[in-house]
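Hello forum,

I keep getting stuck at the same step: I have a sequence, I want structure tokens, and every attempt I make locally crashes halfway through. Rather than fight my setup again tonight, could one of you with a working pipeline run this one for me? It's a single chain of 654 residues.
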Amino acid sequence: MRNWRQTWGTAPPVSPRTRRMAFVSAFVTSVLLCVLVSAQSPRYDLIIRRGTVLDGSGIPRYRADVGIANGFVSRVGDLGNARAAEEIDATGLFVTPGFINIHSHASVDALPTAENMLTQGVTTEILNPDGGGSVDLTQQLARASAAGLALNVGAYIGFNSAWTQVMGPADRRASPEEIERMRAIVVGGLEAGAWGVSAGLDYKPAYFAQVEEVIRVVEPARKWRTNFPNHDRLTPESHYSSKAGVTETIAIGEKAGLVPVITHMKSQGLEQGNAGGLLAMMQDATGRGRYTAADAYPYLAGQTGLGALMVPAWAQDGGRDRMLERFKDPQQRARIATEIEEAMKARFSGPDGVFLPATKRQLVDVMGEQQTTAGEAVIRILEQGNTAAILRFGSEADLVKILQHPTTSISCDCGASTDTRQHPRAWGTFPRVLGRYVRETKALTWEDAIRKMTALPAATIGMVDRGYLAPGMAADITVFDPATVIDHATYEDAGQLSEGIRAVLVNGGLALRGGKVTGERRGQVLSRTPHMPSRPMTSGARSVSLEGRIAPAADGSRGEVRLSIDVRQQSRDPRASGTFRMTDGTTTLEAVAWGVLQTTDKWASFTARVSTRPAREERSAIVILESADPFVAGQPRTVTIVVDGQRLATGVLQ
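Reply #2:
Ran it on my machine without issues. Output:
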């Protein structure tokens, strides 16, 4: 067998003219292949015809039909001779991968319908951002999916939840035994399929954790090659500096060996106008060898608990009951009110930046009615109970720079919900980006905006079977009208549906048709495996080539598997090309239509449609190759083959 390093990696550079010719050649070849296969009467459940495909990679759009079979993308090309049980006419419409929301606060009760998300084109939500959620992901996701899912869901394991469960609400240091308990929660979450280790160090009591404690708790995830999305911690000691918060997130990611993700990134309050500097810090970290990413939503205000980010940490030490006791002490109450106002001014430009969605009132109106200060008004509201607040924080110029940054994914900091008294992002984020920041202001191109909603977030969290519109990928697809797509939700009326999203497929089923939810519940619980590393999006020419075998399964379920793989893809090609052949002595699989080849350090994955022999049936395949598998003793080369969503073979390559 040839040396792995010599046959897998970046191909030699090619000239711009050669790249253009290769793109045209590969596209023509793929179209001809689709025609030839169509002549053999392939079976499609659904065909989307005459649409303009933006495949998630960021390459220029192109006209093509899309064939769906058994929940997977079967062909992308000219399917004029093919027939299907159902067809969608996408003339004049854009056809893209389904949008992936990697920062979801979805309500379990809304997941069976998910109207507010499907009408935004979202097909997958990743729960437990900001460090929250259950520490038992298996149980949490079972409950979330019990009534069926209109879209796919996955979950992070939350640092905040681990810290709170072990440490309680008080500000204190963790013992070695407590650190080990929290590390075990993190590993347990990853073993249960978590898509990363999220944190919200701005929220108490996780706010009390020191940097070295955070690193010690999350560093077991290094082996999993995953990501660390963090709601940055802004402290009064730093004058509520976004720069200090971003610096801390990057430092934790670097030292723990995880991909730092600056989640719902912003340059707040007194530091407005500094987004360029924050983005430069991310680029510097990437240049040092620690790839750094971000996610953001297209609004200049966020939403959280009214007191969560303004009531000082010392006043929240011990939990809500202790906080309420401090409110009753006149001296402490006066100090707390003063510090609330300081935080409000530094972070949210003062009381004018605070809106209460539950009552649809501005904080300044409450202050006027009660004839009191901003800090005292907040205390009085909190004494009546916890309530949400919409908090204005930034500038349009900063937002545009953040959205334009190449490693910023679009996410909404929202999720499936029926609550209309909340932030408009829950109803409008993705169409707002497409309508306002692409069509109207042209801050983003169509291709790049779709990339930031699909392949980029998929790579950031480690997905291999979603994010691209290509053969072998799961059939999560969004069809929208580029001329009309736009949001309508406002801060005063958040529950207005967006328009322009015409159809949404989730695992091949039509969850949205004609802009209306259908009631289909094809959504799945998505779990990350150890062989799905967080990574930059693959760019440039790449290739992988090997021949070898996998020993028979120990349980006797299969015999020896022999493999022959030679796959390559140029930077501007919509799909890979080459050969893939696998045989176990009774069944042979051969690639007949190629998807996307993705690579990163010591790892590669590709999708394809494969034909089985002797049955001559088509299936969708995902092949994952590790050149130094960290989960096998000695870190040997390993191969995993998944067919139609089921693992067919895995083992050490010999």
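Residues 1-41 have pLDDT under 50 and may be disordered. If your local run keeps crashing, start a new thread with the error log.
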